[in-house]
Amino acid sequence: MLFNKRTERYFVWVFFPLALLMPLFLEQNTFYVSKLTTVMIFAIFVMSLDYLVGRCGLITLGHAMFYGLGGYIFVIIAPEYEAVNFWVYTFYICVIAALVALIIGFLVLRTSGIYMIMITLAFAQMAFYYFSDSIDFGGNDGVFIYVKPDTSIFGISLFDLDNPIHFYYLCLLSLFNTLFFFRLVIRSRFGRVIDSIHENPGRTTALGYNVFVFRLMAYTMASALGAYAGYLFTLQYGFVNPSMLAWTTSGSALVMSILGGMGSIYGAILGTLVYEGLHYVLEHLTEHWLLFMGALIILMVILFKNGIAGYLEKLLEKRS
Amino acid sequence: MNNAVILETEGLCKHWGGLKALDDISLKFHDRELHGIVGPNGAGKSTLLNLLCGHYKPTSGKIVHKGEAIDAIKPYAFARRGIGRSFQKTNIYPSATCLENCCVAVQRRMGGSFNFLRSRYRQQVLEEIATEALEKAGLGQRRDQVASRISYGEQRQLEIAMVLATSPCVLLLDEPMAGMGHEESQLIIELLKTLKREYCIVLVEHDMDAVFELSDKLTVMVDGQHLTTGTVDQVRDDPRVRDAYLGQGDEVY
Amino acid sequence: MTTSLFFVQLINGLQYGLLLFLIASGLTLVFGVMGILNLAHGSMYMVGAYLAWYFVQQTGSFTLSAIISAVIALAIGIVVERLLIQRLYRRNHLDQVLLTIGMIFVFNALQSILWGDDPLGVQVPEAMSAAIPLTDVVEYPVYRIFVALVCVAIAAVMYFMINRTRLGMLIRAGESNREMVECLGIDISRLYTIVFAIGVMLATVAGVIAAPMSSIVPGMGEHVLIACFVVVVIGGMGSIKGAFIGALLVGLVDTFASVLMPQLSSMMIYILMAFILLIKPQGLFSS
């Protein structure tokens, strides 16, 4: 079964129908629609990170590099004043990001553990400084996008990207597809090898698998999806800037994935929702929300190790 | 003993800095024979196994498998050539079922490991081969149990089943009876007796009775050096072997 | 590039490298002995700079300010280790990363609450505000030379401490074999507290002495943390000697790159790192 945990099935059955209906309730309030859109976009990014960290055991602190690259690749390859095709550019961006990930992964995956954490972070910072120092890409201000792509397939346009509700549904569809895709991958024969490598890399090598290549594949795949999320973010706000690649983006994504429940994939959605929700509330209560956020993270690490998904699974298991 | 030579070492050395863990070892391992390797602690037995399976790279010397020098290939490529090994410390996937443990091993040969979309659960042939390996190792009834929940002895059997599932031509077994009780050991000994009719087995083992009972050929190593190789009787009567063991003050048989 | 300019850049590079060493040595020491990757290490550098500014305002004396800051740093180190870091010894890298990220958030928020977000500056102490003329047009500030000398002095003290004293012996023993130290009947948790506090103090002192040379801004800690990562990755995690060589390399490469190829200057050290990784994935002096 694709969603093999009961909790996950429940979640999928509750979350997606609710998310489908949400714009009906919020029709008057496009602010919340676009807020939710951003959360869903970021959830795609967190999911791709969760796959790397939770399923593959590859702890990276540089995943935001691909989030930002998704936007920057778009402004680099797309003509400035001409609407391009959304689907074609999705393909381009994923392929280019995958190529970058292949090169970076080749270097990064030679190392492991603490080294890998530091090196991924260092590479992400390299990209960060490159874009924030460069005049061509507007430095810290980034680049604005004047014309949004159109989404027609064979002349039929499904989504109008300038319409927040349409964009909302595009992102919801993307989120569901990403979840579905990762579930497929985890269940596949490739997923079996990845699970084996996560549990016992030495043994997997001794059985004849080239562990490096499998990790590189997983890294490339997750990076391409991370770039896709960044591309969506860029389209939503109509600009790309270096803060997308900042290490804080990677850091908060990691926090969300832990909060949701490491390695559970669907937990990424929960984690992102709760984190962004807390952020939103704290930001309104106090100017110094960062202090409370930091304290919450510290408490979470010490007390709440299995995340929300882990907690829910425990709860539902007890009942059954 | 006219079986073909499958695996061969020529002047194999492994040095760690100034320490010679293994010095100039030349051995021949034959098909369908069990080749025991014994020696006191620190004799370099495990180092030898780690070199034979590609885990370590030799400082100098050659490893020849079916006529080809293979010491420069990558560790995973050893397993692909059919050189399978079991580990001294139990080295399995504890959270997966026994069947799944073996499926990982079988899948390497069956392919599809880069298939992102094909379900790992649609796999009749794969499971059949994995089950076969489990049964060969005497674990047929434990097929669907999680590996961390079976007994220690059974985990050792699973270890061997996983190697069998790779359909190897050479089995490198590192103390398969370590930490086992008498009855469990007996089970493994019976298992190895049947396996050696089919495979070339290199066995490193501390349990002398077991080694003497099983080996077609026996090599004694001391301090990284090759002392002697011969049949069990030849080795047993060799005075140097007695000296080597008595000199060490332990493990007198 | 003229000879004198080259010379100035050489000193600049060395001085920057030595400052980096001061920070990176704390990071690598804590990792080597305790196995903890402290991402909040850079925050302590920031805290040092802000403390220096604050106490210079209060006391008017840079020396006094430096001493008070160092003492406060020790106290912070002890409290943080006892309260938080101790819980991490048996946890995995990921938990370490997250908890120390939480710490960065807290430190950044405190900085913003206590001192605001506007850039601040500390005057170079009067006694060292002079500059040494190198040629008719080129001169070199005394304070920068002073900073370099302080770093060298601290490095020498550390070298002496690690190689000659009882604490150093324990540190070296703890690096190679944790259980052995425990078996010898030494209170390992106290050793850890001391080492962590020293690590924190090194970063803070670096922040203090760097304060008069650069503007004090939010986010300065993260910036320096990343540079330290590059240093430690190049030198080999856990090796003080590696941190020293790595820091000088990074300092020189960064300084000369910004003169010779300004477009690539901020990326040069990462390119250096990638290059060294290709040759030695575990760094130059890994154990």
TrEMBL record, chain A:
GO molecular function terms listed in the Swiss-Prot or TrEMBL record: branched-chain amino acid transmembrane transporter activity
InterPro entries the UniProt entry points to: ABC_transp_permease, LivM-like
Transmembrane segments: 10-26, 32-52, 64-81, 87-109, 114-131, 167-186, 207-233, 253-278, 290-312
Membrane topology: Multi-pass membrane protein
GO cellular component terms, A-Z: plasma membrane
Keywords noted in UniProt: Cell membrane, Membrane, Transmembrane, Transmembrane helix
Pfam families, A to Z: BPD_transp_2
Chief subcellular location: membrane
Coiled coil: none
Subcellular location: Cell inner membrane
CDD domains reported for this sequence: TM_PBP1_LivM_like
UniProt xrefs under PANTHER family: ABC TRANSPORTER ATP-BINDING PROTEIN (PTHR30482:SF17), HIGH-AFFINITY BRANCHED-CHAIN AMINO ACID TRANSPORT SYSTEM PERMEASE (PTHR30482)
Protein name (database record): Benzoate transport, inner-membrane translocator
Automatic annotation (TrEMBL), chain B:
Gene Ontology cellular-component terms listed: plasma membrane
GO function terms (MF aspect): ATP binding; ATP hydrolysis activity
Keywords: ATP-binding, Nucleotide-binding, Transport
Signal peptide: none
Domain ABC transporter: residue ranges: 7-248
Keyword Nucleotide-binding: yes
Pfam families linked to this entry: ABC_tran, BCA_ABC_TP_C
PANTHER family, per the entry: ABC TRANSPORTER ATP-BINDING PROTEIN, CONSERVED COMPONENT OF ABC TRANSPORTER FOR NATURAL AMINO ACIDS-RELATED
Protein name: Benzoate transport, ATPase component
Lineage: Bacteria, Pseudomonadati, Pseudomonadota, Gammaproteobacteria, Oceanospirillales
UniProtKB/TrEMBL annotation, chain C:
Gene Ontology MF terms in the entry: transmembrane transporter activity
UniProt topology in membrane: Multi-pass membrane protein
Cited Pfam families: BPD_transp_2
Assigned GO CC terms: plasma membrane
Protein localization: Cell inner membrane
GO biological process: amino acid transport
Transmembrane segments: 62-85, 97-115, 142-162, 191-212, 224-252, 259-279
Primary location class: membrane
Keyword list, A-Z: Amino-acid transport, Cell membrane, Membrane, Transmembrane, Transmembrane helix, Transport
Alphabetized PANTHER family for the sequence: ABC TRANSPORTER ATP-BINDING PROTEIN, BRANCHED-CHAIN AMINO ACID TRANSPORT SYSTEM PERMEASE PROTEIN LIVH
Record family assignment: Belongs to the binding-protein-dependent transport system permease family. LivHM subfamily.
Protein name: High-affinity branched-chain amino acid transport system permease protein LivH
The organism of origin for this protein: Marinobacterium lacunae
